[in-house]
Design a protein that fits this description.
The complex is a heterodimer of chains A (680) and B (182).
Chain A lengths: L1 H33 L2 H4 L2 H24 L6 H6 L6 H7 L4 H21 L6 H25 L24 H30 L5 H31 L10 H26 L3 H24 L3 H4 L5 H25 L14 H31 L9 H21 L10 H27 L4 H24 L12 H11 L2 H26 L1 E8 L3 E4 L2 E12 L3 E12 L5 E4 L2 E5 L4 E5 L1 E3 L4 E12 L2 E10 L1 H19 L18 H11 L1
Antiparallel strand pairs in A: 1-10, 2-3, 3-4, 4-5, 4-6, 6-7, 8-9, 9-10
Helix pairs in contact in A: 1-3, 1-7, 3-5, 3-6, 6-7, 6-8, 7-8, 7-13, 8-9, 8-11, 9-10, 9-20, 10-11, 10-14, 11-13, 14-15, 15-17, 16-17, 17-19, 19-20
Chain B lengths: L1 H6 L1 H18 L18 E3 L7 E3 L8 E6 L4 H15 L3 E7 L6 H15 L5 E5 L3 H6 L6 E5 L5 E6 L4 H15 L1
Parallel strand pairs in B: 3-4, 4-5
Antiparallel strand pairs in B: 1-2, 3-6, 6-7
The chains are: A alpha+beta (680), B alpha/beta (182).
């Protein structure tokens, strides 16, 4: 009896949440415009209430999944009584309805967090930021309720059992991948809300960028982890050993990441130098718009209508309208309100400002490249020109050289000074790092593989250049000359100087090193991976890269909701120093009758061994696929370092300093009143 | 004033994109008429995936109604389509694959990828035409994989399916079309 009412409670909670989101949007925004403190004060409680009710709805849906309430269509389509409980839990977001609900829940969570950590901000700013996030919530909750209701019932004919979760999604990586990704996507709504609030309030000084920076970094870090998890999942779950496919869905997550990376750097310039103001606002809008568009592309079936499952067209239209309103109005506001005055604080073409500008331009070009490649089939289709298919060759041909150029400038950036720097000085600082990177990068392929390869060398030179220039910069920043008043011995001076470096600086170092590590991974695994497909029965063996793989057994096993054929492969190194067993499987998931490859992986820092079972060739031999993937872990390790770097930078003290805002007195009355309130 | 107009650029760019996205919503690619409808299957001479020595040409498609499916190991959607193709093959439909634009350093690597794909996801095809340069795909007007063509016993294209064949499509479109041209 209780079980049957849970979905109705969830549905009801969702309706209340939508109403609260409307209030959270309308009252504070109107209050900020007409300067009514009471109306503005609605922002925080409504944000909290909205999140609480979405949480209740989400909890109800989770309960329906865990309790096998197959009268709920979403549960019947995506779960099964035999499914282990943790997959029932993650199946909530393994489908359209649930994942949009998760999106709304995470948005509610971010809004609530902004409400909590914004005590030091002017009330009208808080009201506007929360109001704008409320508008986004309203849109998404309406989308959930009107087109993708997760609580829709199948009554009175309740199916006896569910259709089961897609076996591809029955995996630990998939339990955490979407929430991480959504944390990133949705997290960019905070910087978006700050930018729009700054435009609305007419206060486009550097203050909003300081408030928005920590939020942006956190969102970016989550997105980085989310993308890395997706790539890792594809690597071991699809049974291919591929880690990036330039699939529209993957691109949809890469787009906001690229724009977000540009935004992080642009925010830094605006905060520190007061320049790039309009550009930063635009990037904040674009980053969140791309997050929304990613959601649109994935959820509407526009691109995937050619390449994947068919979908309900009303959903696509709803998201498109949502996207059009959000992005269109934001960009219109931008065009009307972006700072008119030309930028103060000029800089020359050799300065950190200029290098960051180049970085931004390159990242934007990369974003546009990926965007074009992703929507290209659509453009051609609409123009009736369709004869070209866009695949990995297009993306690789453009993306790889752009990354190389980006790396060149990334190496220069941290060592360059703001405003102006003499070319000779920069060359003196970084010359050695550059030469060393070139030499070592050129030699490593010879040592590693015995054969020179230009591709490998270019990749490694890029990575080495990033690392060595950072080391040189660290050396420079901790040398005695930069802490001139220090008269103690060189070593204590350096140690003290290291302690004095800010978390923001360490965050940058980690982020850049992370990219270097990822580049090493990409370079090595793309060029030195070894792959062999063989027919194998019990007793057969294969020699590969100094190792012997012998199949010692082949047996049938039974899992909770699948049957499997498992091969036991004994691996010996040539010198007999180590010996271990790997067991790839071929599973048949019973409810959907879907075969799945369960890869056997032996991970290692310098190479992975990767064995997948193909198909049964005759009674007792199988097609087997053996791969050796050098440095593949570095891909994700680097991404993890980047994410940690983003988080470390948030710990910087200056974000926690209250009222550190220098308010230049502006003529606008609303600004003056709010400034007074801050001081009060 | 000039600067103000410049600031409108992002909005204009977005509106253009939005128009295309809207068009994208209303286009149902499965219904798009192929320019090759009711024409002869384009001439080609290519080797098969499994045997580089064995050349096949358009005569391969004569004598029996055949579904020609364009796929590639690089195409994630093709993986999802395989169960439906296996189902069709099981129900007696003759399938010929075109392994389209396979990636890889050389011929051997490209063939290995294609072969591995079939080992992994099953092989519903009687023959696989190996088309690494996409020349046959170009003649067919393929703009992405998967795409499927129904060719009748005379080697004339009778139906063109763009994109993924769903389980519903098998019963509602593909099998009736096959029967119609039998």
């Amino acid at each position: 009896m209780v079980i049957e009412t849970i979905p109705e409670i969830g549905h009801f909670a969702l309706i209340i949440a939508l109403l609260m989101a409307v209030l959270q949007a309308v009252l504070p925004l109107a209050g900020a415009a007409t300067r009514r403190p009471l109306w503005m004060a609605y922002a925080r409680p409504m944000a909290a209430g909205q999140m609480a009710f979405v949480l209740v709805a989400y909890g109800c849906l989770t309960a329906s999944f865990l309790l096998d309430d197959f009268s709920v269509i979403t549960v019947a389509d995506n779960s099964n009584s035999m499914l282990p409980w943790y997959y029932k839990f993650s199946a909530v977001w393994g489908n359209h309805e649930g994942s949009v609900l998760l999106w709304s829940l995470i948005l509610g969570g971010w809004t609530f967090a902004v409400g909590c950590f914004s005590r030091a901000l002017p009330p009208d700013m808080v009201a506007r930021v929360l109001g704008i996030m409320g508008l986004v919530s309203t849109g998404f909750l309406a989308f959930v309720l009107f087109t993708s209701n997760p609580f829709a019932r199948m009554l009175p004919n309740v199916p006896p059992d569910g259709a089961d979760l897609n076996p591809l999604l029955q995996d630990v990586g998939l339990i955490i991948h979407p929430p991480m990704l959504y944390m990133g996507y949705v997290g960019f709504s905070v910087v978006f809300a700050f930018a729009i609030a700054a435009l609305l309030g007419g206060r486009l000084d550097a203050a909003w960028t300081r408030w928005a920076r920590p939020w942006t970094n956190i969102a970016w870090a989550f997105l980085t982890v989310g993308i890395a998890l997706g790539s890792w999942w594809a690597y071991y779950e699809l049974g291919w050993g591929g880690w990036w496919f330039w699939d529209p869905v993957e691109n949809a997550s890469l787009l906001p990441w690229l724009a977000g990376t540009a935004l992080i750097h642009s925010l830094a310039v605006t905060e520190k130098r007061g320049t790039f103001k309009s550009w930063t606002v635009l990037l904040a809008i674009v980053t969140f718009s791309l997050s929304l568009m990613g959601t649109f592309l994935v959820r509407s079936g526009v691109l995937t209508s050619v390449h994947a499952f068919a979908n309900d067209p009303s959903r696509g239209l709803f998201i498109l309208v949502l996207l059009g309103i959000t992005v269109g109005l934001s960009l219109l506001l931008f065009a009307l309100r972006a700072p008119r005055v030309s930028q103060p604080g000029a800089f020359t073409w050799l300065s950190r400002d200029a290098l960051l500008l180049v970085n931004n331009i390159l990242l934007v070009v990369m974003t546009v490249t990926v965007l074009l490649g992703t929507v290209y089939p659509l453009l051609l289709d609409a123009l009736n020109l369709g004869k070209i298919s866009v695949g990995p060759p297009y993306f690789n041909a453009l993306f790889v050289p752009l990354t190389v150029i980006l790396c060149v400038f990334m190496g220069l950036g941290p060592s360059a000074r703001w405003k102006h720097m003499k070319g000779s000085e920069l060359a003196r600082r970084l010359g050695l790092s550059g030469v060393a990177a070139l030499l070592i990068g050129a030699v490593i392929p010879l040592l590693y593989h015995g054969e020179w390869s230009p591709k490998v060398s270019i990749g490694l030179v890029c990575a080495l250049w990033l690392v060595l220039s950072l080391i040189r910069d660290l050396w420079q920043k901790t040398s005695r000359s930069s802490t001139s008043s220090n008269t103690r011995s060189l070593d204590t001076g350096r140690l003290n100087a290291i302690k004095r470096l800010t978390p923001a600086y360490w965050g940058m170092v980690l982020g850049h090193l992370g990219l270097a590590v990822t580049i090493v991974g990409v370079t090595m695994v793309s060029n030195y991976a070894v792959e062999r497909n063989v027919r194998m029965g019990v007793g057969d063996s294969l020699e590969l890269a100094g190792m012997t793989f012998t199949m010692t057994a082949l047996d049938e096993r039974r899992g909770p909701n699948y049957l499997s054929d498992a091969a036991t492969i004994e691996v010996r190194r040539g010198d007999n120093t180590s010996r271990f067993v790997m067991t790839p499987e071929k599973r048949l998931y019973i409810a959907r009758g879907m075969p799945m490859t369960q890869v056997a992986l032996k991970p290692g820092l310098f190479h992975d061994l990767y064995i997948a079972m193909g198909e049964e060739l005759d009674g007792d031999t199988w097609a087997m696929r053996f791969q050796i993937k050098p440095f593949v872990r570095w891909l994700w390790l680097g991404a993890l370092m980047m994410a940690i770097g983003g988080l470390v930078a948030v710990a910087d003290r200056r974000y926690r300093r209250r009222l550190a805002v220098k308010e230049p007195p502006l003529p606008s009355p609303s600004v003056e009143s709010s400034a007074r309130e801050v001081r009060a | 004033m000039k600067r103000r107009l410049l600031l409108l650029l992002p909005l204009v760019a977005f509106l253009v994109l939005a128009v295309f996205l809207y068009r994208g919503l209303s286009i149902n690619p499965s219904e798009r008429e192929s320019a090759l409808m009711a024409r002869e299957f384009p001439a080609f001479s290519l080797s098969t995936l499994q045997d580089p020595q064995r050349k096949v040409d358009a005569s391969l498609l004569e004598g029996q109604v055949t579904l020609v499916n364009v796929w590639g190991s690089w195409c994630p959607t093709c993986r999802q389509e395989m169960p439906q193709l296996l189902d069709l093959a099981e129900r007696g439909v003759r399938l010929v694959g075109v392994d389209y634009k396979e990636q890889g350093a050389d011929d051997v690597a490209q063939r290995a990828r294609g072969t591995a794909f079939l080992q992994q996801f099953g092989n519903p095809f009687e023959v696989n035409i190996f088309d690494p340069d996409g020349s046959l795909g170009f003649d067919l007007g393929v703009y992405g994989a998967p795409e499927t063509f129904l060719v009748d016993a005379e080697g004339v294209i009778r139906y063109h399916h763009t994109g993924y064949i769903t389980a519903e499509d098998v019963d509602q479109i593909i099998l009736p079309e096959v029967e119609k041209w039998q």
